[in-house]
Amino acid sequence: MTAVTTTAPRQMSVTTSISDRAWGSEPPRLGLRAYITCFKGIVWREVLRYLHQRERFMSALVRPLIWLFIFAAGFRQTLGVSIIPPYETYVLYEVYVVPGLLGMILLFNAMQSSLSMVYDRETGAMRTLLVSPFPRSFLLVSKLIGGVAVAAIQAYVFLAIFYFWEAELSGWGYPLLLAPPALLVGLIMFNSATEKLSERFMQDALIVAAVVELAVIAWVIYDWQLSPPSMNYIAVAPALVISGLMLGSLALFMSSVIKQLENFAGVMNFVIFPMFFASSALYPLWRVKESSLLLYQLCLINPFTHAVELIRFALYGQVDWLSLGIVLACTAVFLGAAIFAYNPSKGLIARRGGPGSGA
Amino acid sequence: MDMASETHPSDVGAPALVVNNVSHSFGENLALNDVSLEIPRGRFVVLLGLNGAGKSTLFALITRLYDNVTGEIRIFGHDVRRRAMAALQRLGVVFQSRTLDLDLTLRQNLLYHCALHGIRGREARRRTERALQIVGLADRAREKVRNLSGGQARRVEIARSLLHQPSLLLLDEPTVGLDIGSRESVINIVRSLVEKEGLGVLWATHLFDEVLPTDLVVLLHKGRVLFNGSVPDLLAKTATQSVSDAFRKLTNTDTTERAA
Asked: ipTM beyond 0.85?
């Protein structure tokens, strides 16, 4: 306590000026550059937060990998997938399920960021975002894009893992690829046990590990003479972004409706699972139609189905126009609802009652 | 729109904050009942009220979490509904709940808030450093917020609210849960800003001993403003010796649980 009291007042007298402008002078005009600064700041914070929550970093990657390695491997013999567009040949089940798992990454990320927004609102971090002088819709969309950026990082790491898994490397291939992440995980575990390493050091370690990993990847591709990926990794980027925006705006809307953090278990049961299972993520729709027409129709009206199909076609360099249209329309509707819900005069926050709805 | 704000006539000499005839209800529950108050430029105004008096609702309206349906709220002459950008640029807020990212460093937290006000690059770094100097935490810029004590975290939140050089500062129960030492340092920091830089401050609290004789007082009780004026006027009007006695007399409540 004494330490606290002695430092503050003494240093305080040194200076009270924040910038070269005098206190009380006119605030500057917020032009285009200020908007860009604000946008970058919000997106960067989302990414930073993701990188700092290392458990979240790990679990977000482990989840789709478990599905790929265990579920898909088990289903490989049970479920044959015939030749349907966009596939031109017979594909293995684990190839079929990749777009669905990419969709899963987007879905879980969107719901997780909605959870963090409910949490933010309860702690007040959402309120500090909303007292920024920029228009509220701009702030919300920026936050949304930050969440999509985080999901896209995971999606590409997942695609890279899938690529090397398919390549069936011989010899030192896998140990080489796994060495940098394994060292990083070891470092993180060591640090969380001892707290000896500085934050700065951990950040640098993360960057070094990422650079080394990229070098190893390049080396392995060169030395093992791997063929280029069978999937179009560039064309999938816009599909991931559009689908991510749709799921993110749905989550953003839900974050304004959910009253308390505890309700999130309900979101899991009533939103994530039905959306994921009643879709084309795990099984082709003609198969579903064979067993239940009602389920088939449910799958068809599920926007998540169309997000998955959009990603599936994009992975082979094609555009599924119907899915694209539906995903874009759903994005517009969900985003409109979210902005409405956060609108100070019409919104749901005002009606629900209680200041900050956390206090 | 922005050009107009710079030459807006109401900005010249307008009080830091004007709240006029604002009522607000949540369903049946009337949280604010015809509230009016004014903060002159460069004054320290204490908003006194018990828990549930409507302080946080008033703050939510001023910071535009939701809109005032009746009456008007002006910050340096700018209506918070119609000219939100101009109003929010002049306003700094310290919320009651903790709003810092625990996993990020002090510096990262403050740089994020610079970005929220469109301040970037070298200027943002310089402001971050100076704001931390003002609250006496410059040497801990690279530490995670998680490692700070409650009082230190509060000071960081004050530093953050200063980054865009607001002319009006709102603080919602900033000393709740702090020990005596940290409380004093938080109060001293804000008071010296009022003195040196002419900030207008609205300081919400239920702790009567935070009021100085030179402050202005707004007494809020069950959504109504019971008194609005200087401390000597309050004591004279109620014929009492202390602010807590005056409060008790005006509200007919037993405040022993919080009496200072």
From this structure: yes
